[in-house]
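Supplementary Note 3. Input sequence used for the single-chain structure prediction.
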Amino acid sequence: MRQIILDTETTGLEPSQGHRIIEIGCVEVVDRKLTGNHYHQYIQPEREIDEQAIEIHGITPEFLADKPVFSDIVDEFMTFVDGGELVIHNAPFDVGFINHELKLHQGRYTTLTDYCSVVDTLVMARQKHPGQKNNLDALCKRYMVDNSQRDLHGALLDAEILADVYLMMTGGQTALSLSDKDTAAASGSAEEEVIRRLSKKFSIPVVRATDAEEAAHQQKLASIAKASGNNCIWLSDS
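The predicted structure, written as discrete structure tokens, is reproduced below.
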């Protein structure tokens, strides 16, 4: 199965008020493994960006001044998602904006769901965790997904994070692969699920026992040996 984890950033909240998409980020998942294939594009919206929106994603009109308009990138984007299953958090928002852009484009494309199926992870999360917070940050905390780099919203970063959350929420993973070689080696096992993430490298400290702790340990083993008729396996030579 080919799935596309998708997120967008926009100039505001309502396409009906003329708001537009300014960033699209997608990552590809095939048979529950991140392939490393992705689509990412900033877009010139041809309108102002709400100040509240800039506070969320940090994307300014100055940054977008030299970026392509949607009609310039629509073919590449639609080719990337065509035939896939889109996985989106709060899908009506993103799908609504994309359909609005397709309508404004007035090209050969109709609505997004004519080319892709859609899974809404917000609906899924609310079914699994009723009465709890189910935004992306809350799900990261619940499923122990690292979102420490998410100071601001960004479409590609949020798509990568959502991919982790979705795989955990629908079954988890048993291995962490950081290279194509590791992914290929793991692909031979149908039960092993591999997720590739770019994350910080952590070192695990080694804390050695003190002399006093070692002496207390040996004393405890001696008492076990005495009570068990010298059958303490931790003192065995074998």
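Strands lie at 2-10, 21-30, 33-42, 85-88, 117-120, 175-177, 194-196. Residues 211-227 form the longest helix (17 residues).
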